[in-house]
Structures are given as structure tokens and as C-alpha cells.
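Appendix B. Worked example

We walk through a single record from start to finish. Start with the input: the chain for DUF885 domain-containing protein, Neiella holothuriorum, length 614.
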Amino acid sequence: MRPSALFTTTAAALFLTLAGCDNSGSTANTNPSPDALINVGEECDISQLKGVLDDYFIASKQLYPMWATALGDTELNGKFADGLSDQWLAQRHTLNTQSLAQIQQLNTSCYRQGEQLIVNEFTRSRQLALVGETFPTRFLPLNQFSNPYSSLIQFASGKAAQPFATVADFENFNARAEAFTRWVDLAINRMNEGIESNVTLPRVLALRSAEQIRRTLGLPQSESPLWGALVQAVADDTWTPQERQKITALFEQSVEQYIVPGLAKLADYLETDYLAKTRASDGYWGLPNGRLWYKHYVNVFVDDTRSVEEIHQLGLSEVSRIHQQMLEIGKLVGIEGDLQAVFHAMTSDDKFYFDNGQQLVDGYNELKQHINPLLDDYFANQPAQDYEIREVEAYRAANAAGASYMMGSRDGSRPGVFYVNTHNLRAQPKWGMVTLSLHEASPGHHFQIATQLTLPVLSEYQNYQSNGAFVEGWALYAEHLGLEMGLFNDPYDHFGKLSDELLRAMRLVVDTGLHDKGWSREQAISYMINSSPMAKSDIVAEVERYMAWPGQALSYKLGEQTILALRAKAEQQLGDRFDIREFHDVVLRNGSISLPTLRLQIELWLAQKQRGSE
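Next comes the structure step. The output line below is what the pipeline stores for this chain.
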């Protein structure tokens, strides 16, 4: 039996089982009703629940040691998990199946509401993970947007989570770099299997990955992130001569014998063997069972019961609504003409752009000082952890998003980082800065993630669980809060807010178009060029990101819509008793959870508030 045939049968069976035979492809909602949770016991032995979560968290770090390093766990700093071998895949499957069985065997009858929600959320995650295992993701081990070697390069720079304070730290990195070479061989073997099974990247994504690697290898040593940790270390005069000699030799071996040859081998393979055999389709629809695979990703990120077509139509409707508001702002600032005239006027004037990257970073630092004092009126509890604003590293800037956030360490020793892409300053207009800061920093990603890291939890696992629709939905909701904070009173800044909201609406159209409706890359790019004021370079990077990361682009708008709808419901039910700071605390109190669990969480809170007023 061909691998693709086995995959199709198994995936469909598991998928429909978890979907409750709903042809929308949504996972079954196992959450109980609010009434079922209100009267549960107040005292209960929850040690078994804690044990299941703790064991899963520990085992997950073993499977993903670079993630463990990012979390500040130093025990696995010398490991580079292959993520691709039959042995690794079997270990992951065993962990998911055993964890699901253990959580389902617990007697939860006496659990309190919060503990019931934890059980529901963990069960959903393991079920989705098991569905995900049935798709041949191993045949697509890299793309320009998501790959393990980018993390290794960041670690080598000395500006990420990998420590380089002792000789042992350099030995650990050396072991990790050596293990990377084995991953390269595994990745090549899996991609060859993918060619045989008709599961390959679109040509442009393979090309972008090769270009990204070549760009890194082509940097002079003085500019290369591959040498950053050593440059920083040798500048430290606390090393003894013997230690300095040792760490230099270790790092040179790591880079020259392991990382550089491994990257070169991968680039050679992509250019010489793989490119000619990549698939013609730009979306997942062109893969075996690709539409079902795509709907699985939609479930992972947003768990939405709507069909893909309904999501596509919602995007078209939202784009139309936002366009109308943009025309109104154009009239307000004296721009005559249609929407394209507004776009041209807002993107062609040099006054809207900085001359260099440092000016852009400085501008965001000024915004930070302006926004932070406003948060007191909207949040009773705020994270103590700070964030830094940095430029995206040159080696990855061409294919990176316009901005991103990297979480800090739980102990606060490493701050969060708001990355700004200065590769093309014409893609970073001044009028877009307020909304982008709200999204990536505070009260968006940094605020939410830093809060999650400090929540009192049953298990450390909860500090690091992440749901795409919650994380991105919250960040887009944070942009909405800017309206209430008075940050968009300037019409140009308001245009920037609408421009970013437009991007999230277009994502509903383009992501579903690419992966379900058979759109081409060029069709998606053309749609976004005609529908927005974005720079073409940004649009190309965005579309290629959607091609590489199906479903994730839906998280923003659908997550924000859910939070806004829950807030409207709370305002209606509570009237004068509604407190925005309390509402935000309730939304954030259990970390990054799925939208079904968030809805239940708010229902429980409202039920308790109503009972308290009786």
C-alpha cells in the first residue's frame, strides 16, 4: 500500500471521529455547560492531574530540547532533537496517547471549575496532536519561515537563550551543533521520501529557504550571527588564557566543522535535487488529502465550527467594511479620489518614513513610554517583566514578518523582545507604529505572554501552553483597545490601525484562497496589492508565509472577534457592574487557551457574577 493511501484512510477516520462527524471538520466540543461546573466540589485531591501535566511537560522538553533552552532549562542545552526519525515520531506518539489515556482516566467529579477547564483543554490538545500525527508533516521539515536551523543560528549569535558563560556552555553548544549535522541528513532523507509521496514544498518556498541559507553563509565573519557568541565571549576579560583558548577552539569547531558544512549541504540539496521536484500548487489543496490537512490546521489554530467557505466570505465582508472607513479618513485628511488614491497618498510621501533603522527603533521606544502609563485604567494586574525593541537580524530580515515578539525567560533574567524588521523602511510607515506597538508589545503579545509566565498554576506546563487564536486574537484586540485609550485620535494613526486590521481581514481571504480554493501565489499577491496600502515586498513575504504556515493567518481576526463578542455579552449582562479591568483579568487568568474554553471561562464568570447579585 502506498504511504499516501494509508495516510488518507487513517487521517480521515481519526479526523471525523474527533469532529463528531460534523462535515465542517471541527473538533468535537467536549466542554461541559457552565451549569455542570458551578456546583462541583471545593476540596479535591488534584495530585494526579498535576502529575499528568508535569510528566507531559518534562517529556515534551526531552522531545524539543531547543524549546527547553528557550524556556531557561539548561539540562538539555547540548541536544538537537531530530524531530524526524521513526524513533522520535514513535516517542511523540507514545507521549500523546499515554497522556490522553491518563487524563481521561482521572475521576474529575470533585474538581473545581478551573481544574475542569484544565482537563478539557489538555484533552483537546492531545486529541488534535494525534490527528496531526496522521498527516505526513515529516516530509516538510523546513521552509523559509519555520525551521530549526534558524533557532540554532540565533543561539550562535549569543543574543538568544543559549548561554555562553562557562566552558561547559561552549561544550554544550558544540554537541548541539554536531547533532545538527545529523538532522540535516534526516531532513534530506525525509524530503526525498516526500518526493516519492507527492508531498513537497512549493518551488518558491524551497528557493527562499536556499536563499536564506546562502545569505547567512555569505556574510563576513564580522557581520555573521554565527560568530556572535564567540565575539562577545572573547571581549570578556574574566576568562583565563586556557579557558579562552578552549572556548575559541570549541566554537570554531561548532561553526566551521558542523554548522557551516551542514547548512551548505542543505542548500546544495535544495538547489540541485529538490527544486526541480517541488510541487506546482502553492496551497495545501494540491497535496494528497490536502484540504482535510488544511482544515486540521484551522482547527488547531482557531477551532472554528464555520466552514472554510464561510471564513472566506467573512474576510471579504470585513475587507469591504474597512475599505469604507479608510475612504472616510482619506476625505478627512484632504485626499481626493478613490481607495487607490488614498493608498498612494499614504505611502508615497517621504514624511511618513524614517531614514534608517535606528530611528525606527527609537520611535518605538518613545511610543513605549507613552503607552505604558495608560495601561493602569484597563488592567488591575500588569507583568513586571520588561521588553526590549530590536531590529530583525540581517540574515533573516528579507523573509521575516514586519514585526514579531520573542518571549523572555520566566525568571525575568531575559526580557521579552519586540523585533522590528528594518530590511525595507518603506514597509514601515510612521502611521503604522502605534497599532504595531500595541500588537507586539503592550498590551499585546508581551503583556499577555509575560502575564502568563507569572500566573499561579497547577503545573509549569500551563505557563507555556499556547493557542494561536488566543495569542493573536488578544494582540489584535489590544489594537482595538488603542481606540479607547485615545491613541488613534490622529487620523493618520487611525489609518494605520485600519491598515493593520485590513491585513488581518485579507488573511481570511488569502489563506483560505491559497489552501482550499486553489489560488496561486500570484493571485494572492495581486489581491493584496489591489486591496491594501502595503509595500509589495511585505505582501510577497506575507503570502509566502501563509503558504508555509497554513491556518495560522486566520487566528487574528477570528480570535479578536471572539473576545469582542464575549466582552459585548458581559457588558450587556452586567450593565453598570461591568468592570473592564476585571474582564481583562478573567480573559487572561488561565493563560493561552482555546476559544471554546475561553467562552466557557467567561460564561462561568458571568454566572458567578449573576449569582452574587441575587
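Two observations about the output. Residues 241-274 form the longest helix (34 residues). The chain has 26 helices and three strands.
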